[in-house]
Amino acid sequence: MTEPTVAVLTQGLTRAFDSKVAVDSLDLRVERGEFFGFLGPNGAGKTTSIKMMIGALRPTRGQVWVCGYDVRSQPLEVKRRIGVLPEELNLYDRLTGREFLAFSARMYGVAAAEADRRSDELLELMALSDDQDKLIVEYSHGMQKKVALAAALLHDPEVLFLDEPFSGIDAISGRVIRDVLRSMTRHDRTIVFSSHVLEVVEHLCTRVAILHQGKLVGLGDLGELRAKSHTEGSLEDVFLALVGAEVDREGLSWLR
To answer: Could you report the per-residue pLDDT of 42-70, keeping only the tens digit for each?
Structure first.
């Protein structure tokens, strides 16, 4: 068991695919109540890291603990305490939105009356009440993402893992989701999420981990990341400095 204040702990977390090392000796400590962000270019290892943290991918070496439980040796204890919104949604298209929430509640052992109450609240919050009896196959991508998030929240997880939660979401829904997630951290729940939208990460996250080519190149709040990168400015400026990206600010050569 880890310390009670620790939500997620990784030690030497590594995953290789044949000769390619996707995640290389990742050491992280996420405290309870944190809004923790993962940043990195495409292929940096963000999704692979999250998959190992939730037990969906076995590490090549290293360990992960979530809420004090070893992900490898105590997977059921971990799954009871986490909610997951993956980038690639895996929904049951032939269920209605309401039926999908009922199914998710039964999977997590939520009592029927409590599941109904929570489903009503979540469907209203996600602006899905009018569409709750439609098949999920008829939902837009944004609606599917919202019902998947509702299912991930239904059992009141201690730690919520989100992979690109704001892609395909309109501005109004995005605002609602951000408010819901903020309220969770105020009630001692923990959010771990990856995103390419740097402005969202900058406004939401208490701390950020920046990955590049599978390695951790930055960790901390914005002030700590600025100090490490020797860069003043936005999170975008810090990110580009830490991953060594050079940007041609003049644009297309034939337009000059």
So the answer is: 889 999 999 999 999 999 999 999 999 99
- Beta strand 215-220 with 207-212: parallel, antiparallel or unpaired? antiparallel
Please provide the distance, in angstroms rounded to a whole number, between the alpha carbons at the two ends of the chain.
60
Over residues 210-238, the pLDDT tens digits come to 999 999 999 999 999 999 999 998 999 99
59 CB-near residues (< 8 Å, 6+ apart): 13, 14, 15, 23, 52, 72
Give the DSSP per-residue string, the chain: ---TTEEEEEEEEEEEETTEEEEEEEEEEEETT-EEEEE-STTSSHHHHHHHHTTSS--SEEEEEETTEETTT-HHHHHHHEEEE-SS----TTSBHHHHHHHHHHHTT--HHHHHHHHHHHHHHTT-GGGTTSBGGGS-HHHHHHHHHHHHHTT--SEEEEESTTTT--HHHHHHHHHHHHHHHHTT-EEEEE-S-HHHHHHH-SEEEEEETTEEEEEE-HHHHHHHHT--S-HHHHHHHHTT----TT--GGG-
Alpha-carbon gap, residue 195 to 203, rounded angstroms = 12
Asked whether 15 and 35 are in contact (CB, 8 A), the reply is no
> Which of 90-126 are b and which e, b meaning 16 or more Cβ less than 10 Å from the residue's Cβ?
ebeeebbbbebbbebbeeeebeeeebeebbeebbebb
pTM across the whole model: 0.90
List, edge to edge, every strand of the sheet that includes 6-17.
Answer: 20-31, 6-17, 61-66, 69-70
Domains of the chain: 6-34+42-157+168-188 (3.40.50.300)
